[in-house]
From TrEMBL:
Protein known as: 4Fe-4S ferredoxin iron-sulfur binding domain-containing protein
Species in which this protein is naturally found: Thermoanaerobacterium saccharolyticum (strain DSM 8691 / JW/SL-YS485)
Listed Pfam families: Fer4_16
Domain of life: Bacteria
Keywords recorded for this protein, A-Z: Iron, Iron-sulfur, Metal-binding
GO molecular function, one term: metal ion binding
All copies of domain 4Fe-4S ferredoxin-type, residue ranges: 151-181
């Protein structure tokens, strides 16, 4: 079996709902240019838990959010160890990370960029990855590697259309209602500062001010009838 297929099967066996492969050479910062290929790990969130979110997050959602992040970090670590065993270089981007030096609420590399380039979904008006199958009810991880992968077909256009549900539901009025296209700055879609401020002010007692979930719960792509 070829190595890419082994990676795909292993990651699914370890618990991922979807796996995507991408070429990131055109979008990586200089410091990561030695690892031009991306492996996106997607975990679907629990419908029961997301459906319980109303005008605020729940304690259970906060726990779930952190559990899924831990699972993602374990899967991406295992993937790195497998790639290193085969003699390749690889780096797991933490599931949830905010590096002050990189600017507002940014991690080492944007999971969502890798996921759109792998063809897993588009960026919704909520600023989150939206997939056909699960809507935005997903969490993401990314492994960067120098192992040459066959990439998926990138998605470069939004499928939100006229929908505005997340925009009108956001209590922080942090969403601008702008349709995403590849390359657009996140600031055009979401005011990350307003979102974070609102969560810190209103949900500190529930999720330490780091989760909300309203714009995830309302998305029709994620609501199963
Ligand atoms: S997480 Fe909450 S506050 Fe932030 S954009 Fe979504 S709905 Fe608005
Ligand atoms: S709620 Fe509507 S506008 Fe918002 S991400 Fe989902 S489909 Fe897009």
């Amino acid at each position: 079996m070829d190595k890419q297929k082994i990676i795909l099967e292993k990651i699914k066996e370890w618990g991922a709902s979807e796996v995507g492969f991408s070429y990131l050479g055109d979008v990586l910062p200089e410091s990561l240019q030695d690892l031009k290929y991306g492996i996106s790990v997607l975990i679907k969130l629990s419908d029961r838990i997301i459906n319980e979110i109303d005008d605020k997050p729940t304690y259970t959602y906060f726990h779930h959010y952190r559990s899924v992040n831990t699972l993602i970090d374990q899967i991406t670590l295992k993937t790195v160890l497998l790639l290193e065993k085969w003699g390749y270089n690889a780096l797991a981007v933490p599931a949830s990370q905010s590096i002050k030096e990189l600017g507002e609420y940014r991690g080492l590399f944007q999971h969502k960029t890798a996921a759109t380039m792998a063809g897993l979904g588009w960026i919704g008006k909520n600023g989150l990855l939206v997939t056909e199958k699960y809507g935005p009810r997903v969490r993401l991880g990314t492994v960067l590697t120098d192992f040459e992968l066959e990439p998926g077909t990138p998605i470069s256009e939004s499928k939100c259309g006229e929908c505005n549900l997340c925009v009108t539901s956001c209590p922080a009025m942090a969403l601008h209602g702008r349709l995403w296209e590849a390359g657009i700055d996140r600031k055009e879609i979401v005011d990350a500062h307003a979102c974070s401020e609102y969560m810190n002010k209103n949900f500190k007692h529930i999720g330490r001010g780091s989760v909300c979930g309203i714009c995830i719960r309302v998305c029709p792509y994620g609501i199963k009838i």
